Amino acid sequence: MSALNELKKHLRPGQVYRRAHLRVxxxxxxxxxxxxxxxxxxxxxxxxxxxxxxxxxxxxxxxxEAKLVKAFLKDHRFLLTTPNAYNALGxxxxxxxxxxxxxxxxxxxxxxxxxxxxxxLVKPHFPSKLSEEFLLVDLVDNLExxxxxxxxMLEGARKRALRMNPKxxxxxxxxxxxxxxxxxxVPLLAEGTQTYAS
Length: 198
Known about the structure:
Strand content: 15-25%
Number of strands: 9
Radius of gyration: 22 Å
Helix content: 40-55%
Strand order of the largest sheet: 6-7-9-8
Shape: elongated
Structural class: alpha+beta
Low-confidence stretches: 194-198
Number of domains: 2
Number of helices: 8
């Protein structure tokens, strides 16, 4: 069996690989990677980052975003989100954005991985998964990034906050909020406790 075929034995459809991962199974990794890309087995997503696509009746399936970001960062500590998630809060946000945000501890900036662009933002603290409390806090911290009118959105955020569990919201503000969110929510928390209890 050729060295290239030996490398292929270790590849799994749907997975994203870094060049460093594949060196373990190849004694000429750059030559083998070039061959695998040329024959269509692998797709190059960025420098040193490759995808082995799953074949479907509609063509090659794109790489899973979480696997792609994990391989790029070499870290599992990140949170994928989009400004579109704010729309579910019912605070007046209706704009649709073609953007994926990656909160993480290592990289900052916009990076194109394959055909998709990601906005990597270094943030010291973020949850392991999205919650409505985190999204509301994040919305207030990022209003200047949104197309909607800020005063209208803030009023919607205020009304939404008063309908939420004040303990959960207070915890989200304390753990994940920036200066804008803290300034906005702290005066509401006492009022929110009374509203929630009534």
